[in-house]
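Entry 14. Ran structure prediction on the chain below.
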Amino acid sequence: MNPLFTDPLQLLTISLTGYLLLAVLGILLSPWPRVCAWTGAGTVIAALASLIAAWQMRFTVPQHASLPWLGLGVEQSGLNALLLLVVAVSALWLGLYHWGWLATVAARRRARIASLSHLMLAALSAAVMADNAVTLTLMLELSALAGYFLVVQPGEAKSQAAGHSQFLLARLATLLLIAAFSLLYLHLHSLQFSVIRTAQLPDALRNAVFLLALGGFGIVAGIMPLHGWAPSSHGSAPASVAMLFSSVQLKIGLLGILRISLDVLGTPSLWWGLLVLILAAGTAFFGGLYALMEHDLRRLLAYHSLENVGIILLGIGGAMVGITLQMPLLAMLALTGGLFHLFNHSLFKGALLLAAGAIEQQTGLKDLEKMGGLARLMPWTAGALLTGLIAMAALPPLNGFASEWLIYQGLFTLGTGPGFVLHLLGPLLAVVLAITGALALMCISKVFGVCCLGAPRTEAALGARPAHRLVTLSALLPAILCLLCGIGAPWLIPLFAATAAELTGYPSAAPIGLVSAPLIALLLLSMPLLPLLIAAVYRRKRLPPRLRGSAWACGYGHEASMVVTATGFAQPLRVLFAPLYQLRRWLMPSGINTLLHRQAVTTFCHGLAAVELAVLLVVALA
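Output, structure tokens:
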């Protein structure tokens, strides 16, 4: 058995075969709820095989290989291993969640979820390992179509509109990518990344391919203003599938941008990096701003996913500028921070969306205004939610702080670059990132305060009980990893620096910190403990806590109407940034929106999606 566990290609083959087999079993076993739920255990096993394969490939020099049995061409590299690791850990949480939840779902919906979620995992795993543009585009299309049928729910107009938006934008992304790769094929007569990487391409061709690919992959990544599919899809899909959208599918778009800008097209032009930085800043800022206006918990988290896509893009754009201007410190700091944040985001967004799914299961609620008091009724789920929120806001000692701190250092280094533009842009982008962090901090107060604190606002919230142990565990494990990766950041960062070195060509000696790793870990631990220590010292002079009596507020008897609401919390920002909130209506006029979502158009696209999915399955399996 030793060769089986030391050959990452065999492990990856087992994982992909397992996902495809589980997709078939999900349909066949759907009439038996408890048996079908055990497909979640199979997902966990397949995910573990993929995780081990990713770990073994983490320092592999880029090389072409072929999967045994399947014959699928793949490229082994540190970047591919990182993205495969993201897919594997997300599949692990999805398997645990389905293991505890699928038995409660209606048979037809259970068959669709159990089958298409595994098909989506197989397609995403193959996409991140693709060695050519055809496989990458094909797998992206397959995962998008599987996601479409997971979003659309029969008889639900809202979910059908969300799925239709996703279908239209995914088709546009595919057309842009086909156009970009067609230009390359006409010039090189090959779409292998290894061939494109070594070719000398004219500047006009490189610029055209970059712009087309940025548009196509930007739709997949949810870069604003190409993000229209993401919030509605997150709100309408099952929570586990929304987690896949956020933790994995958005990252495939970022992988494509990385491949095009820093890998296969050679040294990027300066304006490429500046364009990516501007798009990144806008995505991060508007993602955080729009999130505060949402009352649907999963739509709110979707906008925060877009915010984090912008933060990762700040790292990618900074690395592009650093490579162009031959600034190794900027390139390594920015890209290391971006790659680390890419991984961290998959952890805390898994905790957040699966905790939101557990709350929805137990209460039937998505609207924050109807929740309240869940910290006492669902303590472990509330703890996972709070941990994910703190990590998302980049507060120490959790992992979001460590990766964003590297990006901050990269932006400060950008400000030392040549020319007035970079002197201005570096600090300006750092300020935008700081404002984004402040918006995320406000989101902690809004989400956790309204959802989990206070008194239940509705009977549904009052009747909440802890979710199934496996469902709770699926949110709790990534939350624990957020803490461990934050404390262990000094030891983890060199791993991501090695991948950054592979892409930039600069030495992998991490330009990270002048303080010892153990001391940084101790500081990260002590920072959140210091307020508790101070509170414990001063607590001795206070009266003992009152254990009985009715609640009161500023001397008045407490009433339900005194509770802070999500609308009231966000109202000052709604007034302050009113013109910016109107941008959504200006970008998509109601007339065009109504035309695109007419019943005839929606029905035609649904049939087209079914035919396209069947054709792609035949092509992929052949």
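The first strand starts at residue 63 and ends at 66. Will compare against last week's run tomorrow.
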